[in-house]
Specification:
Number of domains: 2
Mean pLDDT: 89
Distance between the termini: 41 Å
Order of helices and strands: HHHEEHHEEEHHEEEH
CATH topology of the largest domain: Beta-Lactamase
Shape: elongated
CATH superfamily of the largest domain: GAF domain
CATH class of the largest domain: Alpha Beta
Structural class: alpha+beta
Radius of gyration: 20 Å
Strand order of the largest sheet: 5-4-3-8-7-6
Low-confidence stretches: 234-248
Strand content: 15-25%
CATH architecture of the largest domain: 2-Layer Sandwich
């Protein structure tokens, strides 16, 4: 189930609602933000003024927009992420060796955020920082199944079928997301205590030997989890064979 705060602070909710609105709408006037969010102009202005003082919002002419401080925060969050630190140096070489695209996702509320990509075709237009609803992307669905045990009824995926596949094989396959037809497989990345850190999606093509790909993805997942758990150092590597993995 989605986490719910024990003592929800509505002022914080309103601040981040305004921040998310600026993220989606771009530079906006106070009156436009107030109308879109059904909040008084005075309250919107107070929040924007505070965010501006703190450096998170800047004003150009009569429009407010998010500042580059969010870029700084985002880069720091990414590089300090335990999942990114454990996986980054592994997924790049894997993508090159298997000659396919790989995407690493981390959950954030009800969204799956891309924190690393390698070997993706430009046509996918999927960059670091992109977000998608958990229920609208294969990697998000595997996060739901691993952390919550099911998928919301409004998902574009067949949650029951994918749950059965995950239970049987430890991996799920399907469209990479609701927006594209590209096929992929996805696995959850979990801690030793069973918490889901995120997920890995690997693109598939009709020519692939699915069994070999699944084995290599499972080996990659295992190596990431071992590294996160501290049982494998960053110097470990894999063999030169296209799908074979060994410890150096």
């Amino acid at each position: 189930m989605t986490y719910e705060a024990t003592r929800r602070v509505e002022t914080s909710v309103r601040t981040f609602t305004i921040v998310e609105h600026l993220d989606q709408a771009g530079p906006s006037r106070v009156s436009a933000i107030a109308a879109d969010l059904d909040i008084s102009k005075g309250i919107v202005h107070n929040h924007l003024s505070t965010l501006r003082e703190l450096g998170y919002v800047c004003k150009v002419d009569d429009q407010y927009q998010l500042s580059a401080k969010f870029l700084q925060l985002g880069q720091r969050v990414r590089t300090q992420s335990p999942l990114y630190r454990a996986a980054h140096s592994l997924v790049g070489p894997y993508a090159r060796r298997v000659e396919t695209g790989v995407v690493l996702y981390a959950p954030a509320g009800r969204e799956a955020i891309v924190i690393d990509t390698h070997g993706l075709p430009a046509s996918l237009d999927l960059a670091v920082g992109a977000s998608q609803p958990l229920t609208a992307t294969l990697a998000g669905v595997v996060i739901c199944l691993e952390s919550e045990g099911d998928v919301a009824a409004d998902s574009v995926y067949d949650g029951d079928a994918l749950a059965s596949q995950l239970d049987a094989d430890g991996i799920i396959t399907g469209r990479l997301s609701a927006a594209v037809s590209t096929q992929a497989c996805s696995v959850p990345i979990t801690t030793e205590s069973g918490d889901c850190l995120g997920s890995l999606a690997v693109l598939l093509s009709p020519e692939d030997d699915r069994e070999s790909i699944y084995e290599s993805v499972d080996a990659l997942r295992d190596q990431i989890e071992r590294r996160h758990g501290g049982s494998e150092s960053a110097e470990r590597s894999f063999a030169t064979e296209k799908h074979a993995w060994i410890d150096s």
